[in-house]
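Worked example 2:
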Amino acid sequence: MNTTNHGQSSRRSFTASGLSILFPFLLFSFPTQAKTYNLQELGADVAGKIKCTELINQTIQKASSEGGGTIYFPAGTYLTGPLHLESHITLHIESGATVRFSDDFNDYLPFIKVRWEGVVMNSFAPLINAQNAENLTITGQGTLEGQGEKWWDFHRRTTAEIRKNGRINHPSELQQLWAEANKDLFVDNYYQPTIKRHFFRPPFIQFYECKNITIEGIKIQNSPFWTINPEFCDDILVHGVSIHNPADAPNTDGINPSSCSNVRISDCFIHVGDDCITIKSGRDAEARRYNDPCENITITNCVMLSGHGGIVIGSEMSGSVKKVTISNCIFHGTDAGIRVKSMRGRGGVVEEIRVDNIVMNDIQKDAFIFDLFYRPMADEEVSERTPVFRNIHISNVTGNNIRRIGYIAGLKEMPVENISFSNINIVAQNGFKAETATNIRFHNIDFAVENGPSLLIANCKNIVLDNMRTKSPLKNQAIIELDKTNNVFINNCFQLIPADIFCKTKDSNVIWGNNFWNNVETQIIKD
């Protein structure tokens, strides 16, 4: 018996030790799966009558303390103030669920650090916010409702009073609180009328110095201010999001990454009261000190309806904007299509931009804008305050029912440089004007206009016009006009529809390549 017991003991010992050798991981416990916190089960009012702010934020804190988790909003309506996210948190808004944010301004106190139109300040907490966090996700098929109307109305009253009186005569308690919280804030003189408001509406979603962010599938509407606005963030995915803000709701941009890197925006539907998507990097000297560009950005497969601009870069680009691709998008009814804007005093560089495969229709103003005169400023010498636009390339664009094809407006001390347009077919009321630019190339272009030249180039140099034509030539009107422009190469042009005049020049130097003038009555007129 003793032997038998010893043998059994040995076998048990061998089995245990063998397992520990062969499968050492069995000695350790497996990590538990991240929890899901069902807000309805936790007692949230799903009728939208009682605020759930404290419950939601406490649940976020609890999940974060346990390593992360999902805050689940089942079908229903949830009334809340601002939500403060922590690392490894997912907000999942189920189909049929609406998270309705309070329109009581006091709910967004205390002030926290935000970036507002490129200026870092202390102001209202964004509706959904996080700082110095990672692995943040907002997903689902539900709705985020911003209830922005009271915010918009207060903004309108405030700006109207400043325009009328130059100041706020009787600031509210909140405006006095803002002034005290920002008494050391410095901005350039031109921005002082904005700062005089002492009231700055919160963005809907602003993540500040965060990384690994996903916003997917949800509908966002009626934002008080900018809608999705990551600041100083890295590794961002915005996919399949619908954004709806009224056309007259002030400054309610759709998606505005600022000083962010590695951003992917795709398959979004945007209908807003300002720019649909804007890429930014901060304002003036403060942003130049941060020196934090917006770079490595892809935007694809998006539809923009209404809005001031389809996709915009600037005007707050003092930290620079670099390495951006925009493709497979539709702009319908926006004021502008592609708009790049800045001004003296901003500094920064916009470069390495690619735009491809775009359809525009019913554009209220310009299809393309490259404007270094966003605000008129006095002439100055080249310095860190001088903005730069260069190395921007646009291809495969179709446009109809457009007011004006667009313009380039460079600075005399810093012309716009190295811009190309390829395979562009646009029907518009008015043509395209390039002024104060160098190394501009047009390849396979058909600009059909109702008034004036299809293309006017003034005070430029080093221009290539390759296969330039119009399907709607105008009587006694040159298709191309050149004014004080040097080193222009015109090649491979064949006007398919008979035209009276192809080119009119004044104080310009033209080099002619291989062209075919069978359908042109007069090749060139020199003033």
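The chain has a mean pLDDT of 94. The radius of gyration is 29 Å.
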